[in-house]
Amino acid sequence: MKKIILFSLFLVISSCVSVKKYNAKSAIPVSAENLRKDVDFTQHKLEELHPKLYWYISKKDLDYQFDSLKMTIQKPLKPNEFYEKLAPVIAKIKEGHLRLYPYDKRLTKKEIKNLKNQKGLLSRYNFVIDHDRIFVKDNPAKIPNMNVGTEILKIKDIPVKDLLKKYKPIVNSDGDNTTFQKYSMARRWPSFFTAEYGILDSVKIETTYQNELKTFYIHREKISREEKKKTEQENKKLTKSETGKTKDYNIVTKSFNRDLQFPTKDSTIAYMKIKTFSGTFSRKFYKQSFAALKKSPAKYLILDVRDNLGGSLSEINNLYSYLVSEEFKFIDDMEVTSRTSMFHANYFTEIPTLAQPLAAVTYPVYLLGTALSVKKKDDKFYLKNNGIFALKKPKKNHFNGKIYVLINGSSFSASSIISSKLKDAKRAFLVGEETGGANDGTVAGRYSTEKLPHSKLKLPIGLMLVQPNIQFTETKKGVLPDYEIIPTLQQVLQKKDVQLEWIMDQIKKNEGNH
Fold first, then answer.
1. Do 321 and 393 touch, CB atoms closer than 8 A?
2. Mean of the pLDDT values across residues 52-76?
3. Nearest-CA neighbor of 171 among 151, 185, 157, 156?
4. DSSP E strands: which ranges in 55-201?
5. Are 339 and 374 in contact (CB under 8 A)?
6. What number is the average pLDDT over the span 188-200?
7. Could you give the percent of the chain with pLDDT greater than 70?
8. Bridge partners, 136 (sequence order)
9. Mean pLDDT for the chain?
């Protein structure tokens, strides 16, 4: 027992020393020469692995951006000072999935445990961005002084407009789309702030609400044992329940990721909200939902993928098969840069620590399978048919009525792909705002996370070109709605869903004309 205690103590001390050593590197400047080498490394890896690097920027312009950046590096910089220079260049490639990550501070086990027993600081709110202003969109915990509609003027005595101006160059979307940035910034600015100023116990805030100025501190609150136990029990009950599994209960948002409702008394309208294409138990959900639709008198289906950042290709392929009545090919064969590019895909990092010894044994089999999965056609390399690319038949319980799809600037990746496919097939009428994800596809799928040799910054690079099987628009834009409705700031803060209301009114008019 004594040896076990001593060994455990040794592990704790070693862990703390390791964390301290790692974090100390963030304060050590890297020489200008080595930073320029990191720029070259970044450019080389992008050219080697990214299958559509020059989709939205020419090679000449991107080369110029990297060369110009190297010329500005004339003195040693700390890793995150270098991040502030390199990240905007990566953003100019205009690939929403492609982003550089700052040098993140590691936490000791004790710090992690303490954070788990505390409520968040800025993460406890949802925000909305209006140009260079930040407003509180939701305050689910009803924390004082932060009413919905409160405008945040300063944080830590720094004007909000200065923070947003600083963060703006590193927030990008797919192509020439501009609708995604405000949604992305609303989600990400707290993490940018934390990366810059650290994990704070409290922070000074200056706000205005109904013409009243206030200055106060928001604090991390401790979670009581009773509260923690109650939350854990509720989460366990919901996530383990049949409904919780099928509807994919999310313990962070405390809501279901997918749901089907019949909002009218006569059940002629069905409303399906999909917050994320997580893939978890999705087949069962769609099977049950479309069986229910078949039995119902529903003539209209409203598919809501607003604020859906994407997810599983398999899930959207399966969902699409319930929305059409003819055979279809959902996506084109996925292009990669070479026969060996998939060898770089994250493998061990995606496997739990306990399973890594087994993963090491099976790694040669994985490499062989990867090598055999690539084919060459017209001097380009593609992944071989794995079922997703094949011609598919519609499901027996497919929906034959009229379909409306709700989209906005935060509809990204997989949600843009299914919206694009439905629009191209003229199978749905799209309402809302141009999607943040491109109409003609994106680069995502498997990733290779490259660590820059000297600054140690991380750059995950998508290895697959994923495109819906459609007539491409070549516009470099998102999926455009058939009818555009962009809510005002006041409508958003008042939770007035003008886009859904418009569809309901249209259906009422259609029914009245019959």
1. yes
2. 98
3. 185
4. 126-130, 133-138, 151-155, 158-159
5. yes
6. 92
7. 96
8. 127
9. 92
Q: What is the reported pLDDT for 230?
A: 84
**Within a 10 A sphere around the Cβ of 35, how many other Cβ atoms?**
25
The tally of CA atoms less than 13 A away on the side-chain side of residue 337 is: 25
Strand 133-138 relative to strand 151-155: parallel, antiparallel, unpaired?
antiparallel
pLDDT at 22: 83
What whole-number distance in Å separates Cα of residue 131 and Cα of residue 182?
8
Q: Are the beta carbons of 423 and 479 closer than 8 angstroms? A: yes
CA 367 – CA 504 distance, rounded (Å):
52
Angle CA 166–170–171, to nearest 5: 105
Residue 407 in this model has a pLDDT that exceeds 50: yes
All domains in the chain, ordered by first residue = 118-219 (2.30.42.10), 257-332+390-437+482-513 (3.90.226.10)
Angle at 353 between CA 351 and CA 354, to 5 degrees: 105
Q: Look-up: residue for tokens 């992305």?
A: 184
- Return d(Cα 429, Cα 450) in angstroms, integer: 41
Element (H, E) at 161: helix 160-167
CB atoms inside a 10 Å sphere around CB 446: 19
Q: Per the structure block, which two tokens stand in for 112? A: 């992690």
Q: What CA–CA distance (Å, rounded) separates 66 from 86?
A: 9
Question: What's the Cα-to-Cα distance from 123 to each of 115, 146, 501, rounded to whole Å?
Answer: 13, 13, 30
**pLDDT tens-digit readout, 111-163:** 888 888 888 899 999 999 999 999 999 998 889 999 999 999 999 999 999 99
